[in-house]
Amino acid sequence: MMIAGIGCRKGATVEDILSAIETALEAHGLAITALTALATATLKRDEQGILSAGRKLDLPLLVVKETDLAAAGPRTLSHSQASQAVAGTPSVSEAAALAAAGAGATLLGPRIVVGPATCAIATSGAIA
Which of 43, 81, 96, 112 sees the fewest Cβ atoms within 10 Å? Predict the structure, then answer.
């Protein structure tokens, strides 16, 4: 399972979100077909840019509960004070990806920031 965790500022567009996803995939040498789903925090579940990106990519959007996001927080690689204050985790995209990918999931690297959007890729197993 490979999950793209998404974070963003309020009102980020679908183009912003897609650009962050594409940049993250490129950074790890992956194609869009490698992704199983997108994931984000409960507080971002109504962001139209994220919802539209999921529809455009034909990927399910997994909404991570606050408790699961907080539990994944210590395993994030990036640390944003703003994210910690608002979402209770140092990185929404990284924590969402880790939590959605399940126990033992690992990040492929730190989140990628593109304008108002962030994307982090987590995998639940070895990459072929």
Answer: 81
